[in-house]
Amino acid sequence: MQKASGNVTGDNNSQNLPEHIAQIMRARVSSGELQAGERFPTELELIEQYQVGRSTIRETIKLLKAENLIEIRHGVGTFISDNPGQISDPLGLGYGDKQQLLASLMETRLLIEPEIACLAAERADEASLQKLGRIIEKMEQNQQPRSDLDIEFHTAIAECTGNNVLERILPIINESIYEGYVKTSNTPGSSERALDYHRRIYQAIASGDGELARHELKAHLQQSMEDMNITRGKKR
């Protein structure tokens, strides 16, 4: 794709210019012209390319940073984000009651993740299965913090589906894994039970058995909720 350039002021007033240029940059990322991790053009390059003032470009950069399209690494430069557009806590979950939030997040996972596991079993390729297997090995050897590996495992299951929307949704609810780890850190046997379920989920996905993968992941989440002392009954 050829870079968009030239004077962009013709059909846009000064108030709309930052958004107009931001839209051009979004299109360049969407088209693959600018890749994740690639250095973003400098202010001077953008000023010269689009024939606008420094204040316009700075407003454009603010817009793109707020959307997590770009990240500024101080002393290094500005780069395209690894997950463009995926902002931290987009649903504002960090501002709710922690106990109620954890219960709601776990309930949400219970509704979504068993179906993701089923789809993963149907679609996982050899590379995806190898990745899941390596994560299980790390869990068995305690190579990283349990919560980090737990998130890595459940995210990798979503990646097995090849559905990039699911891959982007899952990190939003992964906060429950961190909160759940804190909640169950002193619960006897919780780590061992979680590892056993992870093995069973992996085996079900590797065997291509979607129904079994769904069942095992649902059972895993239900056990986790029990370990966290979470009960969700009907409203009266």
Detailed description of the structure:
- It is a single chain.
- This protein is mainly alpha-helical and 236 residues long.
- It is 62% helix and 3% strand.
- A two-stranded antiparallel sheet has the order 1-2.
- The longest helix is centred in the middle third of the chain and has 26 residues.
- It is elongated, with a radius of gyration of 22 Å.
- The mean pLDDT is 84.
Short description:
This protein has 236 residues and is mostly helical. The protein has 10 helices and 2 strands, in the order H-H-H-E-E-H-H-H-H-H-H-H.
Topology (SSEs and partners):
Blueprint: H1 17-30, H2 43-50, H3 54-66, E1 70-73, E2 77-80, H4 98-123, H5 126-141, H6 146-160, H7 164-173, H8 175-184, H9 190-206, H10 210-227
Antiparallel strand pairs: 1-2
Helix pairs in contact: 1-3, 4-6, 4-8, 4-9, 4-10, 5-6, 5-9, 6-7, 9-10
How many structurally independent domains?
2
CATH superfamily of the largest domain: GntR ligand-binding domain-like
The description of the largest β-sheet is: 2 strands, antiparallel
> Which stretches of 5+ consecutive residues score pLDDT under 50?
none
Keywords:
single chain, 236 residues, Four Helix Bundle (Hemerythrin (Met), subunit A), two-stranded antiparallel sheet
